[in-house]
């Protein structure tokens, strides 16, 4: 009883107008810093020469992605998506995501500075940063999220929003659908409504949310039948799917998905600089606001469902789960930290400090991520440009032979044709043939004399041309005693 009385006394400490003014200034300063962090974190994105390896701009025919992922809407919009330059898509990606998150948070009764802080911090989290290399691919799903917002603003009922959004979003990036319940979060935070009524409403929302995903799967099956003559996506081998076939495989997938959830959550928080002091602050706040938080149980249950939704959806196939697929998880974590302290002056200040802590650490990670992408691709771009005596687009096709020692840092990209493909396209090559794939280079001739060489990664790249004007690039690694030959005169 004494502890409860002490906690209640802390929770109801009176404030002074001057203190409120200082807190407002502090929160606004934190919001401004977070927005500056956001600009710094994404500054390099529009300047990249090469974006995600299978972004739409690198493939004229996107049929293979339709078959692998079932994204029929992206397939139908393919030509339009390719018509807009990637730097512009990257700017739209940042702006549309920021505005969407800001609107969701503002609807929860959060003031403008905190909402701006939440939107900026969430966008700096690793999942949002990593998927930013595919801005054109994300656009259709983002557009549909804004359609759901518009439907809600026009008074559409939540079953309609779930069903329509599910049917369409499963034709784009399906992960966006899992964020949809957050649009309805404010009505579950409102403690004026009876707790029982909000719990019943939550149950109905969960049913219609699942119903929307079923509608999405059915619509995807129909579109796959029409456009690819199949009913279900055929995941690419790299996804390493493990379909459930019996009870044992179900339990194995449950264990796999649970482990992935815990590992990714730990990684997300660790990269955000979350340490003991951060956790203690959250626990203390939860104790101080225990009564209010218990009254808001339906809201926390809804957020928890959104938090784990992607992992639950992954159970039937248990594919490889990348951080870039977990924007749902990151947004819920940031939103939870923003809502946990409440709207008092002390709560707003503490929430701002915690969010700024996350943003600062995630900023370092975002800058490192984009710099690695820039540096890794620019090395290849420079070496390949120097290899060609003229323009790469003058060849009818380019064939790549050779495998690099996996111990070399350049090997990860060079040995993977899907990663080399966007590099070649960025150089102006549209018919790229990775000769490590069987039959891919059956029509390529032997090639004539070597017309250019370029030292690279402990060996050299050698360029020749076959009678059909197909450029042939071979990588040859030098032995320990071999002397690199002098390049031929060009």
What layout of secondary structure does this protein have?
Layout: H1 2-11, H2 17-42, H3 63-69, H4 72-76, H5 78-83, H6 86-107, H7 112-124, H8 126-131, H9 135-153, H10 158-169, H11 185-189, H12 195-228, H13 247-271, H14 276-288, H15 290-295, H16 297-313, H17 327-339, H18 345-387, E1 397-401, H19 411-414, H20 417-426, E2 432-434, E3 452-456, E4 459-465, E5 470-477
Parallel strand pairs: 1-2, 1-5
Antiparallel strand pairs: 3-4, 4-5
Helix pairs in contact: 2-7, 2-18, 6-7, 6-9, 7-17, 7-18, 9-10, 10-12, 12-16, 16-17, 17-18
Structure commentary:
The protein has about 500 residues and is mainly alpha-helical. The protein is built from 20 helices and five strands. It has a five-stranded mixed beta sheet, with helices on one face. A hairpin with a 2-residue loop joins strand 3 (about 450-455) and strand 4 (about 460-465). The longest helix is centred in the last third of the chain and has 43 residues, at about 345-385. The protein is globular. The relative contact order is 0.11.
Features:
single chain, 490 residues, mainly alpha, five-stranded mixed beta sheet, 20 helices, 60% helix, 6% strand
């Amino acid at each position: 009883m004494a502890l409860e009385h002490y906690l209640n006394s802390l929770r109801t400490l009176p404030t002074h107008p001057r203190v409120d003014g200082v807190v407002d200034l502090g929160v606004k300063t934190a919001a401004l810093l977070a927005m500056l962090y956001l600009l710094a974190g994404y500054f390099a994105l529009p300047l990249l020469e090469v974006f995600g390896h299978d972004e739409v701009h690198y493939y004229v025919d996107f049929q293979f992605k339709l078959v692998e992922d079932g994204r029929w809407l992206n397939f139908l919009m393919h030509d339009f998506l390719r018509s807009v330059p990637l730097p512009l898509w990257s700017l739209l990606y940042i702006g549309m995501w920021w505005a969407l998150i800001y609107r969701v948070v503002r609807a929860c009764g959060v003031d403008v500075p905190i909402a701006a802080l939440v939107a900026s911090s969430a966008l700096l989290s690793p999942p949002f940063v990593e998927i930013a290399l595919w801005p054109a691919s994300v656009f259709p799903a983002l557009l549909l999220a804004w359609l759901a917002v518009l439907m809600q603003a026009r008074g559409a009922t939540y079953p309609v929003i779930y069903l329509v959004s599910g049917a369409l979003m499963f034709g784009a990036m399906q992960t966006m659908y899992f964020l949809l319940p957050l649009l309805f979060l404010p009505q579950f935070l409102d403690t004026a409504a009876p707790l029982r009524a909000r719990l019943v409403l939550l149950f109905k929302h969960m049913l219609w949310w699942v119903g929307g995903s079923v509608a999405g799967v059915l619509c995807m099956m129909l579109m796959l039948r029409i456009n690819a003559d199949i009913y279900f996506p055929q995941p690419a081998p790299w996804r390493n799917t493990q379909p459930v076939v019996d009870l044992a495989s179900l339990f194995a997938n449950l264990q796999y998905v649970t482990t992935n959830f815990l590992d990714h959550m730990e990684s997300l928080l660790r990269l955000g600089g979350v340490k003991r002091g951060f956790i203690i602050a959250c626990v203390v706040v939860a104790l101080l606001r225990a009564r209010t938080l218990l009254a808001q149980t339906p809201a926390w249950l809804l957020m928890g469902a959104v938090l784990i939704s992607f992992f639950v959806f992954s159970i039937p196939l248990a594919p490889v789960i990348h951080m870039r697929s977990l924007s749902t998880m990151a947004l819920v974590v940031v939103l939870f930290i923003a809502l946990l302290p409440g709207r008092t002056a002390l709560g707003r200040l503490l929430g701002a400090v915690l969010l700024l802590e996350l943003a600062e650490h995630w900023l370092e990670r975002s800058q490192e991520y984009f710099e690695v992408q820039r540096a890794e691709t620019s090395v290849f771009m420079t070496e390949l440009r120097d290899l060609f005596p003229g323009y790469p687009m003058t060849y009818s096709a380019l064939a790549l032979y050779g495998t690099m020692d996996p111990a070399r840092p350049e090997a990860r990209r060079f040995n993977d044709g899907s990663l080399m493909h966007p590099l070649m396209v960025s150089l102006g090559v549209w018919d790229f043939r990775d000769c490590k794939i069987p039959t891919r280079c059956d029509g390529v001739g032997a090639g004539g004399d070597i017309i250019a060489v370029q030292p690279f990664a402990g060996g050299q790249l050698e360029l020749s041309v076959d009678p059909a004007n197909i450029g042939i690039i071979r990588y040859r690694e030098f032995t320990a005693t071999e002397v690199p030959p002098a390049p031929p005169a060009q």
